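Human: I would love a firmer grasp of how sequence relates to backbone shape in proteins. Could you go through the record with me and say what the backbone is doing? Here is the record:
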Amino acid sequence: MPGDTPGERMAYLVQCMDRLGIERLILSQGYSEDKEPNPPEQFRLENDRVMAAVKAYPDRAYGSVYLSPRLPEFSLQEIDRCIRDGPMVMIGEIETDARCNVPEMDPIAERAIALDVVILQHAGLRTGGNPPEDSTPYDVVELAQRHPKLQIVCAHTEELTIRIIRSTKNVYCGIAGGDPMSGIVEMAVRELGAERVIYGSDCGGRSFGSQLCKVLAADIPDSAQELILGGNLRRLLTPILERKGYRI
Protein backbone atom coordinates (compact mmCIF):
# COMPACT_ATOMS: atom_id res chain seq x y z
CA MET A 1 0.00 0.00 0.00
CA PRO A 2 1.28 3.48 -0.76
CA GLY A 3 2.33 5.84 2.01
CA ASP A 4 5.34 6.39 4.25
CA THR A 5 3.47 6.52 7.57
CA PRO A 6 0.68 4.47 9.17
CA GLY A 7 -1.69 7.42 8.72
CA GLU A 8 -0.91 7.74 5.01
CA ARG A 9 -1.37 4.03 4.43
CA MET A 10 -4.62 4.05 6.36
CA ALA A 11 -5.85 6.99 4.26
CA TYR A 12 -5.38 4.88 1.14
CA LEU A 13 -7.22 1.94 2.70
CA VAL A 14 -10.12 4.21 3.68
CA GLN A 15 -10.48 5.27 0.03
CA CYS A 16 -10.75 1.60 -0.95
CA MET A 17 -13.17 0.91 1.90
CA ASP A 18 -15.44 3.76 0.86
CA ARG A 19 -15.65 2.43 -2.70
CA LEU A 20 -16.93 -0.91 -1.42
CA GLY A 21 -19.04 0.13 1.57
CA ILE A 22 -16.71 -1.31 4.21
CA GLU A 23 -17.31 0.30 7.59
CA ARG A 24 -14.24 -0.79 9.58
CA LEU A 25 -11.00 -2.70 9.42
CA ILE A 26 -9.22 -4.71 12.08
CA LEU A 27 -5.52 -4.01 11.58
CA SER A 28 -2.60 -6.21 12.59
CA GLN A 29 1.11 -6.62 11.89
CA GLY A 30 1.91 -3.06 10.82
CA TYR A 31 3.97 -3.25 7.64
CA SER A 32 4.84 -6.94 8.16
CA GLU A 33 8.60 -6.41 7.90
CA ASP A 34 9.42 -9.93 9.06
CA LYS A 35 12.93 -10.69 10.31
CA GLU A 36 12.43 -14.49 10.49
CA PRO A 37 12.25 -14.88 13.41
CA ASN A 38 11.09 -11.51 14.61
CA PRO A 39 12.83 -10.14 17.71
CA PRO A 40 10.67 -8.51 20.40
CA GLU A 41 11.42 -5.00 19.17
CA GLN A 42 9.99 -5.86 15.74
CA PHE A 43 6.67 -7.00 17.22
CA ARG A 44 6.58 -3.82 19.30
CA LEU A 45 7.26 -1.68 16.23
CA GLU A 46 4.53 -3.39 14.19
CA ASN A 47 2.04 -2.94 17.04
CA ASP A 48 3.00 0.72 17.42
CA ARG A 49 2.33 1.25 13.71
CA VAL A 50 -1.13 -0.29 14.04
CA MET A 51 -1.97 1.89 17.03
CA ALA A 52 -0.82 4.97 15.09
CA ALA A 53 -3.12 4.04 12.20
CA VAL A 54 -6.05 3.49 14.57
CA LYS A 55 -5.36 6.82 16.25
CA ALA A 56 -5.41 8.55 12.85
CA TYR A 57 -8.75 6.95 11.90
CA PRO A 58 -10.50 5.92 15.14
CA ASP A 59 -13.91 5.59 13.47
CA ARG A 60 -12.63 3.29 10.70
CA ALA A 61 -10.18 0.89 12.35
CA TYR A 62 -9.63 -1.31 15.37
CA GLY A 63 -6.28 -2.79 16.32
CA SER A 64 -5.25 -6.39 16.96
CA VAL A 65 -2.01 -7.15 18.79
CA TYR A 66 0.63 -9.09 16.85
CA LEU A 67 2.65 -11.60 18.89
CA SER A 68 4.21 -15.04 19.06
CA PRO A 69 4.12 -17.92 21.57
CA ARG A 70 7.87 -18.19 20.92
CA LEU A 71 8.11 -15.12 23.17
CA PRO A 72 5.54 -15.93 25.88
CA GLU A 73 6.47 -13.38 28.56
CA PHE A 74 6.96 -10.61 26.05
CA SER A 75 3.66 -11.51 24.37
CA LEU A 76 1.80 -11.17 27.67
CA GLN A 77 3.44 -7.77 28.17
CA GLU A 78 2.31 -6.70 24.67
CA ILE A 79 -1.25 -7.86 25.35
CA ASP A 80 -1.31 -5.72 28.50
CA ARG A 81 0.31 -2.76 26.76
CA CYS A 82 -1.84 -2.84 23.65
CA ILE A 83 -5.19 -4.17 24.91
CA ARG A 84 -5.50 -3.84 28.68
CA ASP A 85 -3.79 -0.43 28.77
CA GLY A 86 -4.11 0.52 25.09
CA PRO A 87 -6.67 0.83 22.29
CA MET A 88 -6.51 -2.64 20.72
CA VAL A 89 -9.44 -5.07 20.85
CA MET A 90 -8.14 -8.46 19.56
CA ILE A 91 -5.15 -10.80 19.60
CA GLY A 92 -3.59 -11.98 16.34
CA GLU A 93 -2.91 -12.83 13.70
CA ILE A 94 -0.44 -14.99 15.64
CA GLU A 95 3.01 -15.25 14.03
CA THR A 96 3.79 -18.52 12.29
CA ASP A 97 7.07 -19.22 14.09
CA ALA A 98 5.50 -21.65 16.59
CA ARG A 99 2.46 -23.89 16.41
CA CYS A 100 -0.53 -22.74 18.40
CA ASN A 101 -0.84 -26.01 20.36
CA VAL A 102 2.46 -25.46 22.19
CA PRO A 103 2.25 -25.01 25.99
CA GLU A 104 3.46 -21.41 25.61
CA MET A 105 0.10 -20.54 24.01
CA ASP A 106 -1.77 -21.42 27.20
CA PRO A 107 -1.00 -18.21 29.14
CA ILE A 108 -1.84 -16.19 26.02
CA ALA A 109 -5.18 -17.99 25.76
CA GLU A 110 -5.83 -17.43 29.47
CA ARG A 111 -5.09 -13.71 29.14
CA ALA A 112 -7.46 -13.53 26.15
CA ILE A 113 -10.23 -15.14 28.22
CA ALA A 114 -9.58 -12.78 31.14
CA LEU A 115 -9.83 -9.73 28.87
CA ASP A 116 -12.82 -11.06 26.84
CA VAL A 117 -10.94 -10.83 23.56
CA VAL A 118 -10.84 -13.04 20.47
CA ILE A 119 -7.70 -14.67 19.04
CA LEU A 120 -7.12 -14.76 15.29
CA GLN A 121 -4.92 -17.76 14.49
CA HIS A 122 -3.24 -18.42 11.14
CA ALA A 123 -3.75 -22.06 10.18
CA GLY A 124 -3.93 -24.25 7.11
CA LEU A 125 -3.16 -27.56 5.47
CA ARG A 126 -0.50 -27.16 2.80
CA THR A 127 -0.02 -29.41 -0.17
CA GLY A 128 3.04 -31.51 0.62
CA GLY A 129 2.79 -30.84 4.35
CA ASN A 130 3.16 -27.86 6.65
CA PRO A 131 6.50 -26.48 7.86
CA PRO A 132 7.25 -27.54 11.44
CA GLU A 133 6.20 -24.22 13.01
CA ASP A 134 3.10 -23.67 10.87
CA SER A 135 -0.19 -24.30 12.70
CA THR A 136 -2.82 -26.64 11.28
CA PRO A 137 -6.55 -26.61 12.06
CA TYR A 138 -5.90 -29.65 14.26
CA ASP A 139 -3.62 -27.47 16.40
CA VAL A 140 -6.32 -24.78 16.65
CA VAL A 141 -8.85 -27.38 17.79
CA GLU A 142 -6.41 -28.73 20.38
CA LEU A 143 -5.87 -25.26 21.84
CA ALA A 144 -9.60 -24.49 21.82
CA GLN A 145 -10.42 -27.73 23.58
CA ARG A 146 -7.84 -27.00 26.28
CA HIS A 147 -9.53 -23.62 26.79
CA PRO A 148 -13.28 -24.02 26.17
CA LYS A 149 -14.01 -20.40 27.15
CA LEU A 150 -11.60 -19.11 24.48
CA GLN A 151 -13.06 -17.62 21.30
CA ILE A 152 -10.67 -18.29 18.41
CA VAL A 153 -10.96 -17.63 14.67
CA CYS A 154 -9.22 -20.17 12.43
CA ALA A 155 -7.98 -17.99 9.59
CA HIS A 156 -7.84 -18.98 5.91
CA THR A 157 -10.43 -21.75 6.21
CA GLU A 158 -10.73 -24.36 3.45
CA GLU A 159 -12.97 -27.41 3.00
CA LEU A 160 -10.97 -29.81 5.18
CA THR A 161 -10.64 -27.13 7.85
CA ILE A 162 -14.42 -26.80 8.05
CA ARG A 163 -14.72 -30.50 8.84
CA ILE A 164 -11.84 -30.45 11.34
CA ILE A 165 -13.27 -27.55 13.40
CA ARG A 166 -16.93 -28.53 13.06
CA SER A 167 -17.44 -30.13 16.49
CA THR A 168 -15.39 -27.56 18.44
CA LYS A 169 -17.95 -24.82 19.01
CA ASN A 170 -15.55 -22.13 20.23
CA VAL A 171 -13.61 -22.19 16.93
CA TYR A 172 -14.88 -19.86 14.21
CA CYS A 173 -14.27 -20.14 10.49
CA GLY A 174 -12.32 -17.19 9.07
CA ILE A 175 -12.69 -17.12 5.28
CA ALA A 176 -10.06 -14.47 4.51
CA GLY A 177 -7.29 -15.34 2.07
CA GLY A 178 -7.06 -17.51 -1.00
CA ASP A 179 -9.07 -17.33 -4.18
CA PRO A 180 -12.86 -16.81 -4.10
CA MET A 181 -13.61 -20.49 -4.66
CA SER A 182 -17.23 -21.26 -5.47
CA GLY A 183 -19.14 -23.13 -2.76
CA ILE A 184 -16.78 -22.66 0.19
CA VAL A 185 -19.02 -20.21 2.06
CA GLU A 186 -22.11 -22.30 1.37
CA MET A 187 -20.31 -25.32 2.81
CA ALA A 188 -19.21 -23.40 5.89
CA VAL A 189 -22.75 -22.19 6.56
CA ARG A 190 -24.17 -25.67 6.02
CA GLU A 191 -21.62 -27.45 8.22
CA LEU A 192 -21.04 -24.86 10.97
CA GLY A 193 -24.00 -22.51 10.87
CA ALA A 194 -23.77 -18.90 9.72
CA GLU A 195 -23.04 -17.80 13.30
CA ARG A 196 -19.54 -19.34 13.12
CA VAL A 197 -18.41 -17.90 9.76
CA ILE A 198 -16.46 -14.62 9.66
CA TYR A 199 -15.46 -12.50 6.67
CA GLY A 200 -11.98 -11.03 6.41
CA SER A 201 -10.14 -9.26 3.62
CA ASP A 202 -6.51 -10.30 4.28
CA CYS A 203 -5.52 -6.99 2.68
CA GLY A 204 -3.03 -5.93 1.47
CA GLY A 205 -2.09 -9.53 0.65
CA ARG A 206 -5.51 -9.92 -0.99
CA SER A 207 -8.02 -7.46 -2.41
CA PHE A 208 -11.24 -6.42 -0.72
CA GLY A 209 -13.23 -7.32 -3.82
CA SER A 210 -11.95 -10.88 -4.19
CA GLN A 211 -12.82 -11.67 -0.59
CA LEU A 212 -16.16 -9.87 -0.52
CA CYS A 213 -17.37 -11.80 -3.54
CA LYS A 214 -16.98 -15.07 -1.62
CA VAL A 215 -19.88 -13.89 0.53
CA LEU A 216 -21.88 -11.70 -1.83
CA ALA A 217 -21.96 -14.37 -4.57
CA ALA A 218 -22.71 -17.24 -2.19
CA ASP A 219 -26.11 -18.92 -2.38
CA ILE A 220 -27.04 -18.18 1.23
CA PRO A 221 -29.81 -16.08 2.83
CA ASP A 222 -29.33 -12.35 3.30
CA SER A 223 -29.48 -12.90 7.06
CA ALA A 224 -26.46 -15.22 6.83
CA GLN A 225 -24.53 -12.68 4.74
CA GLU A 226 -25.20 -10.01 7.36
CA LEU A 227 -23.81 -12.24 10.11
CA ILE A 228 -20.72 -13.19 8.12
CA LEU A 229 -19.92 -9.65 6.95
CA GLY A 230 -20.10 -8.07 10.38
CA GLY A 231 -22.72 -9.39 12.78
CA ASN A 232 -20.67 -12.28 14.13
CA LEU A 233 -17.52 -10.29 14.74
CA ARG A 234 -19.50 -7.43 16.24
CA ARG A 235 -21.05 -9.92 18.68
CA LEU A 236 -17.66 -11.40 19.63
CA LEU A 237 -16.10 -7.96 20.10
CA THR A 238 -18.97 -6.46 22.11
CA PRO A 239 -17.51 -7.23 25.59
CA ILE A 240 -14.17 -5.52 24.92
CA LEU A 241 -15.75 -2.67 22.95
CA GLU A 242 -18.17 -1.94 25.78
CA ARG A 243 -15.37 -2.09 28.32
CA LYS A 244 -13.39 0.50 26.34
CA GLY A 245 -16.44 2.68 25.63
CA TYR A 246 -16.18 2.25 21.87
CA ARG A 247 -19.16 2.60 19.54
CA ILE A 248 -20.52 -0.82 18.60
The mean pLDDT is 94.
